[in-house]
């Protein structure tokens, strides 16, 4: 039997390792990159939204955001009540984004080398179905 989940996990580990090698010299880690990508796309969101998107617990996001705030990459502000926090990227993060994006893109291009567009389309569809099955 093929262990699909194990293979996906190993692929994710490889991506994470390579991404950290490329973006840590630029002052960012893969755990922070996911937050940056989401905020870059959304503009602003709540901590709860980030937790759901990344599939991690609130304390983990809180610690990561605190580090990112210290680094000057995000701004956190209170929402409608004291428990709700809104997060957005700083100007510094927007300025660094193209460098981080290029590093991530290079890794992806390396990973998909010699894989056809049709194979990638099927791969993406399969991953989406697997994620929906687990949600």
UniProtKB/TrEMBL annotation:
Looking up InterPro entries in the UniProt record yields: ArsR-like_HTH (IPR011991), HTH_MarR-typ (IPR000835), WH-like_DNA-bd_sf (IPR036388), WH_DNA-bd_sf (IPR036390)
One short Pfam family name for this protein?
A: MarR_2
Q: Does the keyword Oxidoreductase apply?
A: no
Origin superkingdom = Bacteria
Q: What GO molecular function annotation could you give as one example from this UniProt entry? A: DNA binding
The keyword Iron belongs to this UniProt entry's keyword annotation: no
Q: Which PANTHER family match?
A: TRANSCRIPTIONAL REGULATOR, MARR (PTHR42756), TRANSCRIPTIONAL REPRESSOR OF EMRAB OPERON (PTHR42756:SF1)
State what protein this is by name: Transcriptional regulator SlyA
What organism does the record attribute this protein to? Answer: Clostridium magnum DSM 2767
């Amino acid at each position: 039997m093929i262990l699909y989940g194990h293979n996906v996990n190993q692929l994710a580990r490889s991506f994470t390792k390579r991404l950290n090698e490329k973006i840590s010299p630029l002052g960012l880690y893969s755990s922070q990159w996911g937050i940056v990508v989401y905020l870059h796309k959304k503009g602003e969101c709540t901590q709860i939204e980030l937790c759901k998107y990344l599939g991690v617990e609130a304390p983990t996001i809180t610690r990561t955001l605190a580090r990112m705030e210290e680094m000057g990459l995000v701004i956190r502000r209170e929402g409608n009540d004291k428990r709700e926090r809104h997060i957005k990227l700083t100007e510094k993060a927007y300025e660094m984004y193209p460098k981080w994006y290029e590093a991530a893109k290079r890794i992806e291009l390396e990973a998909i080398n010699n894989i056809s567009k049709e194979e990638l389309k099927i791969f993406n569809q399969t991953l989406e179905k697997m994620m929906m099955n687990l949600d």
